[in-house]
Structures are given as C-alpha cells and as structure tokens.
C-alpha cells in the first residue's frame, strides 16, 4: 500500500513539475484567466448585466422578490467559468499520455514496478492540482466583488460552487486522460475530448427531446446541469456521485487501454 | 540469470520471433546481433514485460516475465531504442524520479543517483535540463536511468546507435565496466560492437536465433576456410608449389605479378587457404618460406571477422525467402485462368 502511494506521489510530482515548467500550460492558464476576467467584467459592468438589472429594478421601486445580488453574481460567474473550463480542460488533458508515448517514456513506466492504476491516478491528481492552481486567482476576483456584499455570502455556497467546479474538472480531465491514452496524436486527443464535452453539454437538450425514462436517464449524464446544482449552492449527492463516477470511469478505462495497448502494439 | 525458452511472438499472422531460446549467465554480457527487423526489440520487450509472448517462457532471476511481471520489473534496467527521457527535467531530478518509481528507498536514493551519475560521467551535467543535452549525453542519461536502481539484469536496445565514434567508445567502456555485478543483454546491428563488448553472442535473423556462442568460438566455427596471407620476395611460384604439398593446405594463390597492387617488382602476394582449422600451419608455412630462401615481408592470418560470420549466417536464408514471395502472385494468376 505504501509503495503504491509512493508511486502515485512520484508520478504526481513529475506531472506537476512538467505543467509548471511548460510554457504551453502558462498560455492555457493565461487564456483561462483572460476569458474569466472578461466574463467578470461583463457580468458586473455591461448594460444588460446583473448589476444594472438590479439597479434598474431598484429605480423602478420593485423590491419583491428581494434579490441576493452576491449569490446571483457567484451563480452566474461560476456558471460562466464552468463553460470556459469545458473549453480549457481538454488542452490540459490532451498531452497526458500522448506526450509519454511520443517521448517513449511510456515504455519506461510500463517496465517499472508500478501499476497502470498508480500512473493514471498520479497523472490525474497532477493535472487537477494544476487546474486548482488556475482557479485560485479567480478567488481574488470574487473576493474583490463579494468583499463589499451585505449580507456576506455564505461560506458553504462558496465551498460548494468551487468544489463543484473542481469535481467537474476532475470528471472531464479523467475522461480526457482516457482519450489521450488511446491515441498517439495530441491533437486528436484534444478533438475527441472536445467532442465528448460537447456531447455531455448538449445531452441535456437531447434528453428533453427524447423524453420519457430514457430522456430522464440521459439528462443525469449532463455535466452542466449537475454543475449548476453546485453553483446554486445545492448539496446534491447524486451530482457528486455522477462526477466521481466519471472520474473512476476515466481512470479505469485509462488503465485498461494502456494494458490493451501494450498487448497489441507492434 | 536470464532463461529464455521457445519464445514466440506473432502479430496477427506475421511472426516477429519464433522459438527463441537462449540463456545468460550471471555477470555475462550477451550481444544480441541481427539486422533491423530481425526481432531484437520484440525479444527485449518481452523480457522486460512490456509485451506478452505468444508462447514460450522467459525468466529473469527465476521470475517469469509474464506471471511475476512486477517482481521482474524491479530487477531489470531497460534502455529502449529511444532513451525514455522527460526533456523538461534536469538530469538529477529525472534520475530521482526513476529511482522512485523503481522502488529505491528514500534513504538510498541520493547515493544511487550520485553513483549512476558518476558511472555515466554525468556529474557536471546533473543540474542541466535534459532538453539541452546533446544526443550522446542523452544516451548516457538513458543508460543512467537503466542502472540507477542497481538492477541485477540490464537490457540495452541499440545503446550506441546514433553516437559519434568517441561517444561509442565511452558507452562501450561503460557497458563493459557494468559486467560482473550485472547481467547484461545488449542488442546491436553493429558487428564490431559485439566482439568488443560481449562475452557471448546470439545471432538472430528473421525472428530466429541462428547461432549462440562466444565471439571467438563463433569465428572459429567458420574458420574452416581460414588461411594466411604472405608477402614474399623471390620465386613465389616455386614456393606455392611447395606449400601445396603440405598437408592441410587447400589452395595457394599467387598475385602481384601484374604489378597492379603496387608491389616492388620481385615481390608477390600469396593467399593460402587452410582446409581445416584444427591444425595451425603457420609454423610450417614460415619454415617453408625460409627453407626456400625467400624473403618474408609480411605474414598475417586472414581472420574471419564477425562481420563475415554474420553475413554468412544471415544471407544464407535469403533465397528461400525470395521464392515464396515471388510465387503467390503467379499461382493466383494461373488459378484465375483456370
């Protein structure tokens, strides 16, 4: 058990080091910060924004129902960040295995006394940690906006919103990791992950179209619908279970595909 | 230390290796010699547990490479054809990482890494990013990662490919220095490499081991046509006549009469072929030359190089392969006409 943990940590540290030393990952992080900063700007300051809507309501003397601006802001902002994440995450996961394959280091890992599971878990934790590092600056944005809110925002709302974001990222990264393990082309891995994201994004609409029990089942798979639960501060076990299932599924498929790849390859 | 028995591997319908059997004793360096595509890499990948064999068994230190894969992986160091390196890491960080995943305990790691750096002459490059290293240094880092956990068995796939001559000498010396405490298999298609570094050779061609022996004995096996070359001054034809009468001499050829090879006017070259390698006739040949009153300017054994052995062993089967390849289309054609 201790050996497996040590192996996971070794992989995790190496993975993290490669993210922090790669210029590409800073470009990705920069894009993410720029896009989320733009969202913040529009949510706060554009004429059709939340703030101006509330101000207009106040001017017209409408006070019922009361609007918790801080809560609404966080909801909208995290929702937007979630959408940006869907766009950014495949870029983080696309190289997880394709790069190893390109450099031949997969052969090193496969001939070391370390299981495919440990490699996959270490890698996923590494990339997830990098993503968490990417969302930390957003907390500063939020602190600036919410610092003045009265009544102050509930800590559980904050926690659920960001926890949900991390969980959804884990799900996408895990599935993206699997897709990167089945190909040796980084670009293809990214495209497959985008396609999967798009499917999980629109599956909710498809489900509404299909209707019935199949539709209901499909709608459970949707990423954003479950993510919205979190941003709204709803503690929904089924959403947590869904995201964790995606994570485990991704890990399982990755370990299996690496094994299968080894058995087939010429 | 390493036992390979009747190992076969097929990809779909093509077989990469067939019935490969050999053994490596502890401390030995076995050279795995064959042309590109002969099945060297496949065999090595099976030995390292990277690929499963279709049939047959391979054991390293008593552990089956497939059944006890993890136990085997702990005991081997492996350098694939392209060194598996992370360019964004420094040499030292990379070796620490490899030591960690190879299961070297935290306490031993600094020592093991330093030893590997020292052995591979990388001490002054320890803080350099692998990305910035030249090909030769990368290869050394590749070898360092294969020995950092002090494995009993080391498997090196084409360790000198793509290096300049000086680097090749360095790497060969390094490999030689590892023998004794480590058991080594190295693959190569460069023939002199084997005679320079290996204590034993397995020649593989078209997926089959066609010969296993020490480099010297392997040459002796093919020495039946071994001979001598002489450069003499005097009546070479008469000498040739005398030599032909000696028992054990197959043929004597005289050259140089036309002066085309730049010999002084009265000198000739003789090529002597011996009929068997059991008797070494060098002493009698020299005595015959001296008795005949000729001047002896050069006398050397025409040693068959491993290269010749190799060509001999691997070209033999080529015609066999060509025929079936050429036939099927014609039989298909005739089948169509019928």
From TrEMBL, chain A:
The chain crosses the membrane at residues 23-45, 73-97, 117-140, 160-182, 194-218, 238-258. Keywords: Membrane, Transmembrane, Transmembrane helix. One of its GO terms (cellular component) is plasma membrane. It holds the Pfam family ABC2_membrane_2. The keyword Disulfide bond does not apply. The keyword Nucleus does not apply. GO terms for molecular function: ABC-type transporter activity. It comes from the Bacteria. PANTHER family: ABC TRANSPORTER PERMEASE. This is ABC transporter permease.
TrEMBL record, chain B:
Signal peptide: none annotated. Keywords: ATP-binding, Nucleotide-binding, Transport. It holds the Pfam family ABC_tran. Residues 328-338 have a biased composition (Low complexity). Residues 2-231 form the ABC transporter domain. Gene3D superfamilies: P-loop containing nucleotide triphosphate hydrolases. Residues 316-338 are annotated as: Disordered. GO terms for molecular function: ATP binding; ATP hydrolysis activity. Belongs to the ABC transporter superfamily. This is ABC transporter ATP-binding protein. It comes from Drouetiella hepatica Uher 2000/2452.
């Amino acid at each position: 058990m201790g050996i497996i943990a040590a192996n996971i940590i070794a992989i995790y540290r190496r993975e993290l080091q490669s993210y922090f030393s790669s210029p590409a990952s800073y470009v990705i992080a920069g894009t993410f910060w720029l896009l989320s900063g733009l969202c913040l700007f529009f949510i706060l300051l554009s004429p059709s924004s939340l703030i101006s809507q509330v101000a207009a309501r106040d001017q017209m003397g409408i006070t019922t129902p009361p609007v918790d601006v801080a809560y609404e802001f966080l909801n909208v902002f995290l929702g937007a960040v979630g959408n940006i994440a869907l766009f950014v995450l495949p870029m983080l996961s696309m190289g997880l295995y394709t790069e190893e394959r390109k450099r031949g280091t997969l052969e090193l890992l496969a001939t070391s006394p370390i299981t495919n599971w440990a490699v996959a878990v270490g890698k996923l934790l590494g990339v997830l940690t990098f993503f968490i590092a990417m969302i930390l600056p957003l907390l500063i944005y939020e602190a600036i906006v919410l610092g003045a809110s009265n009544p102050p925002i509930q800590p559980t709302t904050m926690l659920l919103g960001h926890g949900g974001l991390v969980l959804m990222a884990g799900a996408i990264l895990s599935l993206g990791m699997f897709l990167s393990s089945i190909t040796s082309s980084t670009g293809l891995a990214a495209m497959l992950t985008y396609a999967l994201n798009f499917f999980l994004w629109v599956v909710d609409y498809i489900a509404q179209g299909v209707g019935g029990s199949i539709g209901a089942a499909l709608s459970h798979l949707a990423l954003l619908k479950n993510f919205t639960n979190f941003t709204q501060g709803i503690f929904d076990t089924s959403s947590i279970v869904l995201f964790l299932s995606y994570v485990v599924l991704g890990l399982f498929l990755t370990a299996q595909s690496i094994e299968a790849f080894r058995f087939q390859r010429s | 230390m390493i036992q390979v028995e009747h190992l076969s591997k097929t990809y779909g319908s093509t077989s990469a290796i067939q019935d490969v059997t050999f053994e490596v004793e502890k401390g030995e360096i076995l050279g795995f010699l064959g042309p590109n595509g002969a099945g060297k890499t496949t065999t090595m990948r099976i030995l390292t547990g990277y690929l499963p064999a279709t049939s047959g068994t391979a054991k390293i230190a008593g552990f089956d490479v497939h059944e006890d894969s993890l136990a085997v992986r702990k005991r081997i160091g492996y350098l694939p054809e392209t060194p598996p390196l992370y360019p964004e890491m420094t040499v030292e960080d990379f070796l620490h990482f490899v030591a960690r995943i190879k299961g070297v305990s935290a306490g031993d790691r600094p020592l093991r890494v330093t030893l590997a750096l020292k052995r591979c002459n990388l001490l002054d490059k320890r803080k350099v990013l692998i990305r910035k290293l030249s090909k030769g240094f990368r290869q050394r880092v590749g070898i360092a990662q294969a020995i950092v956990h002090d494995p009993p068995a080391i498997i090196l796939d084409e360790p000198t490919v793509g290096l300049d001559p000086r680097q090749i000498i360095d790497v060969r010396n390094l490999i030689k220095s590892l023998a004794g405490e480590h058991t080594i298999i190295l693959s190569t298609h460069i023939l002199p490499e084997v005679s320079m570094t290996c204590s034993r050779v397995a020649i593989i061609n078209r997926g089959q081991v066609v010969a296993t022996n020490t480099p010297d004995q392997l040459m002796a096996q093919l020495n039946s046509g071994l001979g001598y070359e002489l450069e003499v001054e005097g009546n070479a034809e008469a000498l040739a006549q005398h030599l032909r009468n000696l028992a054990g001499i197959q043929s004597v050829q005289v050259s140089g009469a036309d002066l085309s090879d730049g010999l002084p006017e009265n000198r000739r070259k003789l090529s002597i072929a011996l009929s068997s390698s059991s008797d070494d006739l060098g002493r009698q040949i020299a005595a015959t030359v001296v008795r005949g009153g000729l001047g002896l300017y050069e006398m050397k054994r025409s040693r068959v190089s491993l290269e010749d052995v190799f060509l001999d062993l691997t070209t033999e089967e080529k015609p066999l392969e060509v025929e079936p390849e050429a036939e099927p289309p014609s039989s298909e054609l005739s089948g169509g006409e019928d």
